[in-house]
Design brief:
The chain is an alpha+beta fold. Helix content is 65%, strand content 7%. It has a 4-stranded antiparallel beta sheet. Helix 2 runs antiparallel to helix 8, helix 4 runs antiparallel to helix 7 and helix 5 runs antiparallel to helix 6. The longest helix has 29 residues.
Amino acid sequence: MTSFDRRIASPIPGRPTRPLSVVRITLNLRAYHDGVLPCHFVLFGRCMASSSSPPSGRPLRPRRPWYLNASLAVAWVMGALAVLFGTGTLAFLDYPEEMSLTFERNTDITADQRAHQKAAFEKYAAALENARRRVVPLAVAEMLLGASMVIFAQRAAVGRSWARSALVQLTTARLALLAVEWALTPDLRKPENDFQMALKNMDTEEVPPGAAKLVSVGLGITIGAITILGLNVPGSRAFYTSMDQLTDT
C-alpha cells in the first residue's frame, strides 16, 4: 500500500504558512487489480466514496478457471470447423467443376501431382453425388450444430449458465452426429481417404482404406468428450453459480 499527503498552504498574505487541510489519497493496488476500490480519497479521516466503487456487500465477479477457458475455446473451434466442413461438403456436391479447377491452377506441385489430385477429387465427388440423399442432411445438420456451438460458446464465455447447459447438449449432439456419419457413409471412406492422401502427396497404399476418416472421427469424439468434461467439472459449475448470484443481486 502506498500513500502520500498533500498539504495546502494558507493563501492569506502576511500570515504564517500553515496547513489548512490534509488530503490523504490511499491506493490499494491489490484491490484495484481485483476491481474493488472501497475508498478513493480519505479527507480528515473520512472516506470520500467514488461513484465507480461497487455497492457495499455486492459479490465480486468470479474468475473463470483455466480449464473452463480451454473448454470454451475448444468448443468454439469445434463449431467453426463443423461449419467449415459442412459448407465444404455442400460445395463439393454443387460445384464439382469449379473445385476441380483449383487443382489445375496449383503451380506449387508437379503436373503429375496435379493430375493425381484431380483424379482423386473426381472420384470423391462422384461418391458424394451417389450418396447425396445421405450426405446433404448430414452436412446441413453439421453446419447448424457448428453455428449454434459458436454462438452458445460466446454466450457461455460471459457467464451465462443457460448457455453452458445448451453448449454441453450441442457438443453431445455433435459427437453423436460424427458417429452417425461414420455409420451411414461406409462407401465414402475409401474415396475420401484417397483424396486426403492425394492432397498430402502420399501413396494411398501406405494408409489402410478409411483410416483418415476413422482418425478424424476418433479425434473429434475424444476432444469433444474432454470439452464436455471441462464444462461439467465442479469448478466450472461453481463459476456459473457465482455468476447467477451476481446477476440476481
